[in-house]
Amino acid sequence: MRINHAIRIAAGVAALALTVTACGGSSNKTASQHAADGKLTIGIKYDQPGLGLLNKDGSHSGFDVDVATYVADKMGVKPENITFKESPSAQRETLIQNGQVDFIVATYSITDARKQKVDFAGPYFITGQSLLVRSDNTDITGPESLNGNKKLCSVKGSTPAQNIKEKYVSAKEVQLQEYDTYSLCVEALKSGAVDAVSTDDIILRGYAAQSPGALKVVGNTFTTEKYGIGVKKGDTESRGKINDAIDAMITSGAWKAALEKNFGSTGFQIPEPPKVDRY
Questions:
Q1: Do 111 and 133 belong to one domain?
Q2: Over 70: is that where the pLDDT of 4 sits?
Q3: Do you know which SMART domains this protein is assigned to (predicted)?
Q4: Of the four listed, 8, 78, 86, 106, which is most buried by Cβ atoms within 10 Å?
């Protein structure tokens, strides 16, 4: 009996080890080393129209995907050798630190707190936080119209959620609902479970364009968000190469073309490109 029990335990441990190895996919190599091998694993969002979206046919599309693909190409990796991995907001630092991705291009705002855990190349885009409401809503016209009766949705681990907590929840001006993804927030908005969704303007415009006539973006932006490409802390070689690629994308015109392709039909005004910060 004891022998059989020990065998079962050993088998369970072995199976668990295999599962962790298969699911984790972690590596100690840097992004540059993986690129030299001809392959990259890049973190993106799967549920953000116009930015990072997993399509029904299994393909990926959006501005972030185009940026990631351009950067990979400049590092010597062709599109067919890129593995895209879903990177929810709350998991981004962990995915980088554990070596499960080489870098992340997923509407990833550069903040001082995040720079304690990962390094950033970029920024490759600058936006600001805004509000998304149902098209028939006339009460909410911007953050100044929020009050204690309003339910506002944002995503766990995101910069917008933290901004809302610091500026509005603390003043009891809004009830914050934190979901795992923005797509869940948008569904809650459509169903009437929340009154508004708050995140970066460009993300909200993608959702509004996906549901024409049902949703609208209101008010002016009320924060500044600089999107960076997250890499492992201390990986200065890879960060430098990614910065070079971002610069090349901007100067070649590919950056503007990618924005026009993904947002040209939404009425979105393409801004001036950012200046890469090589701090």
A1: no
A2: no
A3: PBPb (SM00062)
A4: 106
